[in-house]
């Protein structure tokens, strides 16, 4: 395929648009994860234990970021949520 064909390939441009969307989504998710970490640290300081619901949200958010990064780095063509199911993998089984 020539360079001209590569530059005019509509599927490549669509993927670039999706990549921009997910790069923006990644920055929001990163902010959420940092917030979860801070709030859970405050819980630990004041109650002696973490908030399990926040931990679960942090785990799911981390898996979502992982899916985004796989897509952004061309390791998968599967678009992350909301174009596919919300990730619910066990992080120990990721490879």
What topology emerges from the helices and strands here?
Blueprint lengths: L2 H6 L1 H38 L4 H21 L23
Helix pairs in contact: 2-3
Describe the protein:
With 95 residues, the protein is mostly helical. The protein has a domain at 28-83. The protein contains three helices and no strands. It has helices at residues 3-8, 10-47, 52-72. Helix 2 runs antiparallel to helix 3. The longest helix has 38 residues, at 10-47. It starts with a helix and ends in a 23-residue tail after the last helix.
Which properties best describe this structure?
mainly alpha; 95 residues; 3 helices
User: How many strand elements?
Assistant: 0
Along the chain, the helix and strand elements come as HHH
- How would you sum up the major sheet? none
> From the alpha-carbon coordinates, what is the Rg to the nearest angstrom?
17 Å
Q: What is the distance, rounded to the nearest whole angstrom, between the alpha carbons of the first and last residues?
A: 32 Å
Low-confidence stretches: none
Q: Roughly what is the average pLDDT, rounded to an integer?
A: 89
Task: Output the number of helix runs.
Answer: 3
Helical percentage: 55-70%
Strand content: under 5%
Shape descriptor reads elongated
Counting helices, strands and paired strands, the structural category is mainly alpha
Write a brief structural summary.
With 95 residues, the chain is an all-alpha fold. It has 3 helices and no strands.
């Amino acid at each position: 395929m020539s360079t001209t064909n590569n530059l005019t390939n509509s599927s490549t441009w669509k993927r670039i648009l999706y990549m921009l969307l997910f790069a923006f989504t990644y920055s929001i998710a990163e902010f959420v994860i940092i917030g979860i970490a801070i709030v859970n640290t405050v819980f630990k300081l004041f109650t002696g234990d973490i908030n399990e619901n926040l931990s679960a949200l942090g785990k799911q958010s981390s898996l979502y970021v992982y899916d985004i990064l796989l897509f952004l780095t061309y390791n998968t063509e599967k678009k992350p949520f909301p174009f596919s199911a919300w990730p619910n993998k066990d992080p120990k089984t990721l490879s």
